[in-house]
Task: inverse folding
């Protein structure tokens, strides 16, 4: 989650014809999944070479998940395809190991082929992984060399000088010398329960740390994690359709129970003795972030279990001892951003993101951790860093005060932030070349899908990374409002054949995780909602006051009773919207969502049946004692210390005989290894015992992501059918 631009106008996609007949579920949902929400065929994974002459990116055909490698020439504005998975597989099927499948599930990745690649620091070589094998592509000639590794390679990365590649296989870290194409094992003794060089489940799922090893700047050593899950509770995952296959045992740390024991070691690339890094791991058990900059110390960020305190530590790699660069504290919880610390090239300091003053801001600190100055103030709506041009001291960041939009901003030393781009409303993301000469801006809006343009630092347009994506068959009829005295952000989607003044039943589409915005000025984010609206509903999305990065910290971080706080804001926002839109029939309101949104949907009909008459809850958490440590304890604390918080947040608490409740359809994948299927079984069992009628739809073999187009189609049909029946 890098330039001076006078003005930038992002061209929207051509206006599409809007057919009046609603799309059929089969045609729409089949298209939706097959095209990955009409994003297949749009460039992703852009990297700019150090000389700013070439941009590499990945792109797949419009109806295929197999990503290929492409190159955009800055001088000519032309694009060419460099390498396809088919050319390497030569008719063979792509295969993935269970470890790689799990890693992609954590990254919410459904694509195949070249799902990622690495560019050497000099920009002359590319490293590609496919079906457990590795390939190096020479930029100058296009020559492809298969690396002679063992099978099932995970997380391959170049050394800083581009002469070696390190990766994980068989639970240990290996390296390969490119000059001789020979492999050597670096770490020893890795097992399924004690892995070397792999990020553990919690790091991947909740911290967004997907790496477990890091090169030293000189390429002579590696830092790596040892993750010991022997003390972590094992949960069984079974395929009820195929009982002969037995159960898969997964290490899953539920709230209040043991986490993986993670330590960090430094080892020569030739192998040998590991120097273990020392810090107070009992007080700060979470190894959240690791950096080993070109100049500057090996740096790690560690958190206490409550995530209310963290230390940024510098490591003496010879002894393993650490010294503290800075301490962060927050009475609710600390927000992780894997972009930081961002060390300067000369090692004189680093950029740091903090919420110490109430909202996110960006700081410059010296090499000792001492504050030099604030670069982006806390009232600027900072969301993420896009780039930092050191020679100018210029920061580029994404954000803004309006949570429904996101733009690229620039701030120079001593100046106030100014927006780089023009136009809107839009959601933008950007990447700045290291030297600051090129700007790659991706934009989408309420009537346009994602497109990516390349500009020079003065704003001159170089070209556009071409898309071959299919365009959606309709445009969402999106209306964004800020309603009520609290100015709640809301989105409304009407049927495209709606008649003014005619009241219609309402469906609330919800996620409502703390700090997560649902109301976005995005065509892609509202396609499903528009299709649902076209079946005869008014579909709304509602954000609480804490969804903006500039909101008060207590609104953004509701602690212990977060679910009730978020639910109250949903109801208040819905009523405020209805005061402005008389077509909303508040006597016929349904609610649906997945994951945290599934939890909130079920909670709505259990606790507020006066408002919500029906719910479709997908992949919902039933009892937070059964969800993972890092996310759950951030919101609710430890179960033994705050039992009342867990009791009030559990759906089971609110299932009572004879108590009024709305209609509920529970949908859950039987192979879900994030929110396990037993969540749905526990809820259904409690409802049955309480004499509360409900409906239950298991998705056989589906994980937390419903990636099968046919299954997604059936889920869409079932959802609409349920709301038509009960609203």
Result:
């Amino acid at each position: 989650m890098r330039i001076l631009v006078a003005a930038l106008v992002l061209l929207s996609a051509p206006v599409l014809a809007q057919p009046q007949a609603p799309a059929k579920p089969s045609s729409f949902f089949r298209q939706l999944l097959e095209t990955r929400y009409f994003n297949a065929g749009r460039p992703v994974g852009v990297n700019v070479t150090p000389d700013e002459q070439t941009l590499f990116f990945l792109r797949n055909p419009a109806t295929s998940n197999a990503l290929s490698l492409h190159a955009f020439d800055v001088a000519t504005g032309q694009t060419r395809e460099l390498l396809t998975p088919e050319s390497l597989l030569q008719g063979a099927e792509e295969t993935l190991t269970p470890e790689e499948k799990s890693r992609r599930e954590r990254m919410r990745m459904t694509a195949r082929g070249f799902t990622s690649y690495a560019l050497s620091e000099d920009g002359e070589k590319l490293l590609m992984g496919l079906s457990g094998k590795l390939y190096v592509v020479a930029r100058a000639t296009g020559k492809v060399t298969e690396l002679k590794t063992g099978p099932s390679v995970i997380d391959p990365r170049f050394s800083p000088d581009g002469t070696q590649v390190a990766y994980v296989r068989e639970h240990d870290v290996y390296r390969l010398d490119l000059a001789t194409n020979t492999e050597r094992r670096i770490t020893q003794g890795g097992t399924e329960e004690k892995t070397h060089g792999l990020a553990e489940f919690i790091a991947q799922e909740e911290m967004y740390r997907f790496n477990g090893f890091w090169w030293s700047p000189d390429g002579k050593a590696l830092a790596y994690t040892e993750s010991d899950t022997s003390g972590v509770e094992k949960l069984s995952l079974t395929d009820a359709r195929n009982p002969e296959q037995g159960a898969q045992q997964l290490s899953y740390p539920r709230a209040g129970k043991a986490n993986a024991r993670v330590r960090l070691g430094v080892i020569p690339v030739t192998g040998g003795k590991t120097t273990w890094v020392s810090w107070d791991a009992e007080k700060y058990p979470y190894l959240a972030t690791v950096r080993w900059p070109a100049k500057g110390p090996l740096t790690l960020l560690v958190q206490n279990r409550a995530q209310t305190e963290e230390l940024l530590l510098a490591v003496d790699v010879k002894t393993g001892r650490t010294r503290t660069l800075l301490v962060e504290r927050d009475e609710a919880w600390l927000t992780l951003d894997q972009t930081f610390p961002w060390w300067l090239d000369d090692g004189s300091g680093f950029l740091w993101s903090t919420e110490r003053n109430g909202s996110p801001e960006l700081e410059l600190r010296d090499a000792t951790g001492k504050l030099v100055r604030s670069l982006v103030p806390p009232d600027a709506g900072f969301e993420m860093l896009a780039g930092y041009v050191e020679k100018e001291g210029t920061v580029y960041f994404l954000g803004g005060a309006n949570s429904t939009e996101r733009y690229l901003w620039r701030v120079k030393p001593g100046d106030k932030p100014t927006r780089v781009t023009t136009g809107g409303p839009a959601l933008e993301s950007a990447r700045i070349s290291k030297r600051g000469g090129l700007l790659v801006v991706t934009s989408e809006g309420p009537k346009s899908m994602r497109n990516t343009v390349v500009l020079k630092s003065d704003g001159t347009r170089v070209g556009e990374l071409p898309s071959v994506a299919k365009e959606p068959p309709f445009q969402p009829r999106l209306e964004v409002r800020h309603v009520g005295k609290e100015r709640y952000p809301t989105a409304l989607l009407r049927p495209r054949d709606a008649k003014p003044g005619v009241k219609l039943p309402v469906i609330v589409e919800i996620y409502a995780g703390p700090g997560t915005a649902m109301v976005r000025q995005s065509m892609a984010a509202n396609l499903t909602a528009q299709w649902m609206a076209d079946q005869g509903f008014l579909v709304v999305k509602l954000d609480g006051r804490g969804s903006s990065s500039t909101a008060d910290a207590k609104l953004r971080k509701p602690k212990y009773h977060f679910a009730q706080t978020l639910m109250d804001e949903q109801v208040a926002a819905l009523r405020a919207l209805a005061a402005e839109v008389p077509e909303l029939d508040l006597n016929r309101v349904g609610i649906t969502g997945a994951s945290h949104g599934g939890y909130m949907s079920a909670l709505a009909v259990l606790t507020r049946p006066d408002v919500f008459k029906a719910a479709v809850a997908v992949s919902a958490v039933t009892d937070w004692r059964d969800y993972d440590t890092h996310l759950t304890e951030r919101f609710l604390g430890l179960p033994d210390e705050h039992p009342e918080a867990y009791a009030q947040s559990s759906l089971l608490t609110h299932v009572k005989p004879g108590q009024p409740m709305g209609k509920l359809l529970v949908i859950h994948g039987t192979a879900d290894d994030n929110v396990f299927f037993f969540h749905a079984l526990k809820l259904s069992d409690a409802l049955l015992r309480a004499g509360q009628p409900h409906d239950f739809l298991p998705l056989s073999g589906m994980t937390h992501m419903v990636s099968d187009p046919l299954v997604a189609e059936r889920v869409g049909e079932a959802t609409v059918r349920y709301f038509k029946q009960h609203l």
User: Anything to note?
Assistant: The chain is about 15% helix and 35% strand.
